[in-house]
Amino acid sequence: MNDEPVLDSLLDRMRPRLEADLKLTLRALERSEDGDMGAMIAYHLGWQGERPSGGKRVRPMLSLLSCAAAGAPWEPALPLASAVELIHNFSLVHDDIQDQSATRHGRPTVWQRWGVAQAINVGDAIFVLARLAAHRLRDQGHEPAVVLAVMHTLDRACLRLTVGQHLDLAFEELDQISEAEYLHMIQGKTAALISAGTAAGAILALAEEGWIQALRHFGLHLGLAFQITDDILGIWGSPERTGKPAGDDLLARKKSYPVLHGLRTSSEFHRLWVEPELTSGHLAKMRDLLEQAGALSAAQELADFHTQQAMRALEAMPPTPYRAALRDFAARLLRRDR
Q: Residue 33's domain is classified under what CATH number?
């Protein structure tokens, strides 16, 4: 099952079922007396408003594929997939406020459209909906102890995610950040939820402990490689493909992995970085200096290392068609250009 059309066919079956399950979760806010909160959440999830876009739904697809790779049908894991996607989205709503991001997927963010106060509340509501989605696993026939284990896994990931965001914000005020500190930060901010989602898929499948740990490590290293790839695209990605202005991460002074490498190794890049006002006119020079300092190649090498570690972790799983699909999906994510 390592051929792309077969993977696409599988994803095409999963995605509409996921969207339906997400909408089932949002029925908790359908009452007219609840005001517009349900509509705000539906807008953020890409179902309403101009230029509707539901996003890539990467994390829930990984959870469903992991459950199948661990030997169980993926359909009873749909509430887990919804919970993972909603956790991711609660963090995005809050992240947009903290970063003052005006757009997401080419549309105004929730805080831009309805204000910061309402956006904070929307993010909180999405977090609660994630937990309600996980509770629905019992309706799929999963034993209470298994559901509790899944919820514990997701709750721990939420804590790591928020710690990672705390560190990311704190790093904005620091002049020096080591590679180890950066990796610890993205392990929380990005990799923790992916790792929890893949492990939880195996927990739902009642897999043996070795398989659960294999999928946990797969998700961890995949998350690290995914974020480092995102760092590369944030500087060298095409605006037509990424949907963000070229070099946006540089103008925002985001301390991504390539930037940290450049600050350590290039005095000329450091001099430009500390300029009081960065403009689009600085971008080409800054990108050139990073490449000359080896930042692009170092970031790609690190992403490749974690990609290899992720794929190696999968080798502990039985060589089934679903394991092949999971591997192919991960490989597709890491060669993306957006």
A: 1.10.600.10
Please state the length of the chain. Answer: 338
Q: Are 326 and 65 in contact (CB under 8 A)?
A: yes
User: Containing domain of residue 289, as a range?
Assistant: 4-334
Number of domains in the chain: 1
By C-alpha distance, which of 122, 59, 55 is closest to 85? 59
The total of other beta-carbon atoms located within 10 Å of residue 90's CB is 23
Helix locations, the chain, DSSP H: 4-26, 37-44, 58-69, 78-99, 110-114, 116-135, 144-171, 179-186, 192-204, 209-236, 239-242, 248-251, 257-265, 267-273, 280-292, 295-314, 321-334
What DSSP letter does each residue of 145-184 carry, written as one string? HHHHHHHHHHHHHHHHHHHHHHHHHHHTT-S---HHHHHH
Residue type (1 letter), 176: Q
Among residues 150, 121, 129, which one has the least CA distance to residue 22? 129
Q: What residues are paired with 107 via a beta bridge?
A: 104
CA–CA gap between residue 281 and residue 286 (Å, rounded): 9
pTM score of the predicted model: 0.94
Question: 72-87 pLDDT, tens per residue?
Answer: 999 999 999 999 999 9
